[in-house]
Amino acid sequence: MGTLELRDVVKHYAGGAETVKAVDGVSLTVAGGEFIALYGPSGSGKTTLLMLAAALASPDSGSILFDGRDIGEFSERDGARYRRVDVGFVFQTFHLLAHTSALDNATIKLTGDGCTLREARRRALPWLERVGLAERVEQTPETLSMGERQRVAIARALANEPRLLLADEPTGNLDSRRSREVIALMRDICHERAIPGVLVTHDSDATRFVDRVYTLRDGHLADGMDPQLAASSL
Ligand SMILES: Nc1ncnc2c1ncn2[C@@H]1O[C@H](COP(=O)(O)OP(=O)(O)OP(=O)(O)O)[C@@H](O)[C@H]1O
Ligand SMILES: [Mg+2]
Fold it and tell me: What tens digit of pLDDT does each residue of 151-194 get?
């Protein structure tokens, strides 16, 4: 059973005049079967933490372990394999392929991992149905609403049955009912498949449907803060 573990992770960005400390000593563990929220205001380091967990960036210090393996030690090839096979990532900006049907967008990781297109479509279709897009599978992103695009991105992240789910503001474009459904779906997947999941959000309502909430401020964890209370002081 995979566990995601962050140990004293620090990440800076070298900007123009000054260096930004985007992540400032974060330690947390997400066990298999647990769906947590990283909650915090804009600029608090949420996306940066997800990028580090997905091996899309490396920490300046500290370590990140998945399933006991230090992902900072991965070769480029290991990192690519980890992202392709182990990680299901829902990007804040979707990253869907234009002029490509919802169904074929959802198959990308499967075909990238050697599935035939026919097999990939067979496996991806139930995920599009599960996010409520059964009627939209042939439509391209340009013809879908923002919320529908977001749900395609979620189906794509789940279609290859990842061992770790990372979702960056996956409900930013959804209404509150759909948002609750999508979060509950991701939580249920994590529970069913016993995989760790991390939801990044600045929506305090979204945090009601996860197993545990970590509040981020200026790149570090503010322990034990009730997100509803924290929301009133953001
Ligand atoms: N590539 C970059 N170069 C320089 N600074 C960056 C870069 N990416 C992020 N930052 C800075 O790091 C900090 C954390 O950014 P991050 O994107 O992780 O925040 P966030 O919590 O995801 O915000 P949001 O809710 O707006 O998406 C911010 O101050 C941001 O300006
Ligand atoms: Mg972000």
Answer: 999 999 999 999 999 999 988 888 888 888 889 989 999 999 99
What dotted CATH number matches 4-233? Answer: 3.40.50.300
Mean of per-residue pLDDT scores for the chain: 92
CA 128 from chain center: how many Å? 17
* Contact partners, residue 179, CB within 8 Å, separation at least 6: 171, 203, 205, 206
Question: What ligand 1 atom has the least distance to the C-alpha of 202?
Answer: 25
Residue 46 near ligand 1, beta carbon < 6 Å: yes
Query: Does the CB atom of residue 171 touch ligand 1 within 6 A?
Result: no
Q: Where are the domains of the chain?
A: 4-233
Is there an atom of ligand 1 within 6 Å of 43 CB? Answer: yes
Q: Residues 36-79: pLDDT tens digits?
A: 999 999 999 999 999 999 999 999 999 999 999 999 999 999 99
Q: Which atom of ligand 1 is nearest to the CA of 41?
A: 25
